[in-house]
Amino acid sequence: QWYQRRVRADQTTALEEQTAALEEQTATTTSISREVSNTLATAMTVKNRQQTLLSEVRLISQYKDSGQTSTHSAYGHEVELISDGQFIFDRHHWGDMATYSHTGSAAHNNKIWLKLGGLFRIHKIKIWNIRHCCTERIVGSRVLADDKLIGIIARAQSSYDFEVAVDDPTYAREITLHQPLAQYLHILELQVWGSGPFTAEDKFA
């Protein structure tokens, strides 16, 4: 009888150990499954975020940092004025249109640029030319998204729209207007529509 009780006790202990091991294995499997689910959920969230950002095309240029090769000495020609939102006026007259940037000289390779503050996909660039005088000075200027040429201004007019094709995904941190000719460079506003910002790793077409 003692032997039988001992055998039953050993069997009970073995069964309890097996049950404990099975419970531990089940808990581990559940934990791994939860981690995998969380990882997949995070990946889907990132993907959804990317898709959402891609669909959210918006004005990304207003009040951003900017620069120009030189600044005209007259008041009201600071480069910050290219992103202040002021480009519609009652009259095409200097007194009503004084908020425009203006380089300090008519040298070769004058530039005006706008820093977007991150890596954005560019969908459209619009440049508002001054309209009370000297509209032809901008002719020949090149529009660049970082180092990529978006377009060249071929004629004098009040504004210019440069659409970026959907099948030509263009990412940039900076938009530049470059006049290679010996000419002043002055504009009322530089507007950019885009989506983002993105990291270099999550860029996608």
Description:
The chain is 26% helix and 31% strand. It has one helix spanning 2-55, and strands spanning 58-59, 66-68, 101-102, 110-129, 142-145, 148-152, 159-163, 171-179, 186-198. Strands 1, 2, 3, 4, 5, 6, 7, 8 and 9 form a nine-stranded antiparallel beta sheet that branches. Strand 5 (142-145) and strand 6 (148-152) form a beta hairpin. The longest helix has 54 residues, at 2-55. The termini are far apart.
Summary, kept brief:
Helices cover 26% and strands 31% of the residues. By secondary structure, it is of the alpha+beta class.
List keywords for this structure.
single chain, 205 residues, alpha+beta, nine-stranded antiparallel β-sheet
Set down the secondary structure blueprint.
Elements (H helix, E strand, L loop, with lengths): L1 H54 L2 E2 L6 E3 L32 E2 L7 E20 L12 E4 L2 E5 L6 E5 L7 E9 L6 E13 L7
Antiparallel strand pairs: 1-9, 2-4, 3-9, 4-7, 4-8, 4-9, 5-6, 5-8
